Every structure is written in C-alpha cells, then in structure tokens.
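Re: beginner question about structure tokens

> Can someone show what the tokenized structure looks like for a real chain? I only ever see the sequence side.

Sure, here's an example I had lying around. Input first:
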Amino acid sequence: MSFVKLSKLWFALGGLFMAASLAVLVFNWRATGQLFNFGIDFTGGTVWIIRFAQPVALADLRAGLSGERVDITTIKAQNSAAEDFRLKTIELSDEQREQFTAVLRENFGAYEILSFENIGASAGSDLARQALVLTVLVLSGMLIYITFRFEFWTGLAAVLCLLHDVLVTLGVVSFLRLDFNLSMIAAILTIVGYSINATIIIFDRVRENLQSGQQTEQQPDFAAVADVSLRSVLGRCLMTSFTTMLAVLAVYIFGGASIKNFALTMFIGFAAGAYSSIFLAAPLYALFRKAA
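And the corresponding structure tokens:
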C-alpha cells in the first residue's frame, strides 16, 4: 500500500479530527465561557495543609471528599513518620469553609490545620499565560531545530503534525471536561516530545534515501522516497506506539485517582501522535517538496 498516494484520505481524516476539536472548544467557550474545565491551579482557590489525629489513608480521604471539588496529595511530615495532607479547594466563603471542615471532622475525626493560604485568580491567569507561552516556545524551538538538522519543509511538516496532536488532545480533554491543571501542561509537553521523536525517525530515513539516490537521479521523486522511507520504519513506529500506549493504559486502569486524568490525556495524545507520524508527516513533506 502506498501511504503517500492516499494522502488526501489521511489529510481529510486529520482535518476532520482537528475541526471536531475546534468545534468542541468553541462550543464550550460559548456555553461556559471557558475552553476547558480549569482546575484550581488556574482558577485560584485555597491550599490547606492538615494533619489528622488518627492515621487516615489517602484513598479513604479521597473517597470521603468525592463530592467536593478538591485535589489531595500527601506530604512528608517534618520530624515524624506520619504524612500530612495538602488539599486544594476552590475559594470558599466563610459558610462554605465551615461546611467543608465539618465534613472533614465528621468523616475523619479531629485534625489540625498546619497551613492555610488563598491563591488569587490573577495568579492562575498568569500561570495560564505562562503555560501558553511555554507551549508556543517549544513548538517554535522544534521548528528551528528540525530546520537546522534537516530542512525547512521537514520542520514545517513536523510542526503541523505537532499542532494536530496538541489540538486533538485539547479537544478531547475539553469534550470530556477533564480538570485542566498543571499536570495537563506536563502531559501536553510530553506528547510533543514523544510525537516529534517518531516523526524524526521517518524524516531521518527520508534524508538517507535522498542522499543514496543523488548519484542516480537529478530530480528525485519525493513522493516515492517518502513512501519507501515510511514503509521501511513502519513496523518500528507501530510497535513503539503500541507498547507505549499499552503502558499508559495500564497506568490509567491501575493507577491512583490523582493520575487518571494525566494518563488518559497521555493516551489520547500518543494515539494522535501515532496517527500524525505515520499518516501525515511523510505525505506533508512530499506535498511541500512537490510544491516548492
């Protein structure tokens, strides 16, 4: 099968995925005023550090507060073998704070508040802007690096594939209304790094095949070279993507509640990255070189 000859099909499917993601983002923006279900890291809230008089398991604490919007992590207590808990909640009024503390006391007994800090929404907005700038800088850096190592058309094709991966992932995250917090930014950057690695493998083989054919062809058939290069590394790309997605799926199924959204986002992004690396990267390169 010639992957490049079917490029119109791959482009149509990729465009459909991206259009659907954009539609979800626009719908959520118009319906809720937000692209994502932003977590406390971006919207601001209150950070509590508490210590219970009696030992409490993290799983039990999460189960007891499942009806509350709260992120829970453990921290090592100073000069003690016990663990304290860091709770992040939305900003609470005095009445809501009393209700929240009553739920804690009723379900888990006496406790001590070691620290209490309010995080303003402006800090969350600054964090969101910094995350956006960081993502743009990473994509720009990728374009510069790949252009320097290969050529501009290769870099452009790779960045377009990365935009596909990021947009599709964000669209699914928005559709599922997953909490968008700092771990999501880490997941997106990890997806970008993983996807570009698979794409570079293909482009490296394209470069090798072009160099080996320079002595026999004045004007190489870029579509044929891209197709041969992709098929030569297809098995490696498929196996790498499958095993990585399988590992992330295992983390999602058997991991704790605190990393389920992170693992699910990674799985979605790796799937989108596998599609773009296999079905979009080489055809895009061939299209750009033909038009140049």
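Each token stands for a local structural state, so reading them left to right follows the chain. The longest strand covers residues 111-119.
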